[in-house]
Design goal:
Chain lengths: ~500, ~325
Amino acid sequence: MEIAMQNIFKSFGDNHVLKGVNFTLAPGEIHALMGENGAGKSTLMNILTGILPIERGQIKINGQVTHFKNAMDAELHGISFIHQEMNNYGEMTVLENMFINREITNRFGILKTSAMRTQARKYLDYLGADFGLDMPIHDLSVGNQQLVEIAKSLMTDAQVIIMDEPTSALTENEINKLFKIVKELQATGVGFIYISHRMEEITTLCDTITIMRDGISVTTTKVADTNVNQIVKAMVGRDLTEFYPERTTQVGEVYFEAHGLSRQGVFNDVSFDVHSGEIVAFAGLMGAGRTEIMRAIFGIDRLDHGQIKVSGKVVENHSPAAAIKHGIGFMTENRKDEGLILDATIADNIDLASLRSFTKYGLIDEHNDRIFVEALIKRLTIKTQTADIAVSSLSGGNQQKVVLAKWIGAGSQVLILDEPTRGVDVGAKREIYDLMNELTARGVAIIMISSDLPEVLGMSDRINVVYEGKIMGTLATKNATQETVMTLATGGQING
Amino acid sequence: MDNTKRQQFNVMDFIGKLGPVLALAFLVFLVTLLNHSFLDINNLLNLLRQVSTNALIAFGMTFVILTAGIDLSVGSILAFTGAITAQMIIAGVHPAFAFLLGVLIGAILGGVNGVIIAYGGAAPFIATLATMTIYRGATYVLTDGNPISGAKMTNSFFFQVIGRGYFLGIPFPIVIMLVAFIILYVLLHKMAFGRKTYAIGGNAKAAFVSGIKINKITILIYTLSGIMASIAGFILTSRLNSAQPDAGVTYEMDAIAAVVLGGTSLAGGKGRLLGTLVGALIIGTLNNGMNLLGISSFYQQIVKGIVIIIAVLIDRKKAV
Ligand SMILES: Nc1ncnc2c1ncn2[C@@H]1O[C@H](COP(=O)(O)OP(=O)(O)OP(=O)(O)O)[C@@H](O)[C@H]1O
Ligand SMILES: [Mg+2]
């Protein structure tokens, strides 16, 4: 299938997002679509698949002008869209989610469950996903939910698959599997539009790349004819050579300690410490238990055993409120679920964890609140026209920055960041890293969970590698390599 | 940030917030057209006095609904606290003190709802449906099913003034309604408590992770609802000069209707207290207007229901 989008325009109110974008997908091509957060990538794909109405311009499918009425219409014509923001039904099972609106039934309308099970299992196995079909989907990690979305899309026999940041929650292994499948499908003639902020994925997977900036498509080239520096420059409009700033912070005394933390069936005997001014990364495969350890430390889940010390004092966190009082902050990984109040404004989201600091006798100091919010919006370069619109209208990467702003604003001395740069563009990533350096320079102890190995190696001082709920080893980052981390993360041993 | 953009967003906001006010204005216009005596000052004060009990309950209900909850027990709390307060007065407790005790009992009954919902994890609809019957039953037990009245009530200045007195020419229930509105407006829109209320309704999980003590806030909100119901109960007892065991039946429906007419979303997280006041006025105007026009109470119910459906449909359109 060949897709040609010509001179596409789209605005939201006064926000002119697309100002004449051209985009062409050749049959069987893997085409990367890149651009900063808020550049309009998701919007362009929403227009292609009929989710958003087009304002001006035209779309040709195999040479014929075709404007889809809605997402189902696009899907029936062989275009499947794996969204950046997952739209699943939390209480329903994996199976039910996979077949929603495309149930297999007999001629009396009765569900043919076993046929659906077989098919679902087939595609999930293909992706190497081993969770059960009857689990409620909200019990799965974000990464596993992403796999369900991918399996769902593979099931539709699409000729074009749009992937909007499919790997942002996946780890190396799952990504490799996904890439293998994408290549296999490509060999059978399936085309892909691939949106991602991870440079190395573009160069290993994609054939062609289109870069968007300021509402237009600035270039389209063969990936082989360009390089990472050129791509980044076209995206952000300036040179950006070093992705990771140097870690120069003076690491201080031990500030945070965890001793023998256990939670039945989830993690076992986890001990580690973080010094003030230090960044300790937690690496591991999806489902290794990294997030679960942090949830228990922060008082979201219960701890069965173990002790937590902050600045030498034993603390008990029965709830997030208690943890926050002890100076701990936790930026959770799933922004839609636990990170944001989507319908509330940016301002109301950002100050949610810091209400206490500008409240006197229960009254909110609106003036200081506003200064606080605006400063964080500026510091994190959140792309918006006002702090008073719903976060749901922001692009994915900018929503991520709102969650980060909330926790940076909370002024914690121990900051747990779970996938802090998920879905954030290269330029903004660099800004977040700079910010982390700034925080550690002020003595903040940072715990960073990341599935992005280059990020782990580039931005930490020490690395704890978690495998099946245990810390397999602690590496000094300067001695660590991708190989040593991966060996530990898959349950292997390293010598010396 | 760009100022013109900000304005544009606010226009939409403005129309959204103004919807209920426009509806009220239209209604007032219509009723006046059909019967000029609607605008008589006495009729208007009478209307506001009729509105006050429902408005008080609806103010509390607004907080509850903002958290995506519901409180069906308000009518029963009103009856129970009204009855027990009347009994205390007859037994010789000073009416002012009895009033405070009644409010305290209302707070406790509301708090029980909150505890069941917050700690028991019960769905608010079910929890308050159960306590609605329990509290109503308790009222019948307490009163033996008979109205309570007595000389100690009719002779007390304090007791009389709450429901029937005037302050600067304004009926006292209206004064109470306005004072309550101001206090709760500040609580909801100017204090951290209000922010937390919205946050719980918007996304309880995110609110919890952000350090908001959602159980505590939830209990306090149902407590508030109980307090408002018991204040309304006292006003009603004073107006009628007696406590009726079946007082307040279906009051929860009028309160919910006022909240929804005022633009607050039953899904939680969205709405304003001013909207609820307007919503209560819409219902009051409908009742009053239809009475003036001599429409039978049977038809009145039908009309009220239709108005609610229209309001909700307009609201849905706006959301899309
Ligand atoms: N429903 C909406 N209402 C208002 N503005 C919107 C809406 N959807 C998107 N926008 C705006 O359009 C712009 C482009 O958003 P879009 O989601 O397409 O960006 P993106 O390139 O996908 O970014 P990211 O890399 O962060 O996912 C942003 O400024 C965003 O705020
Ligand atoms: Mg996007």
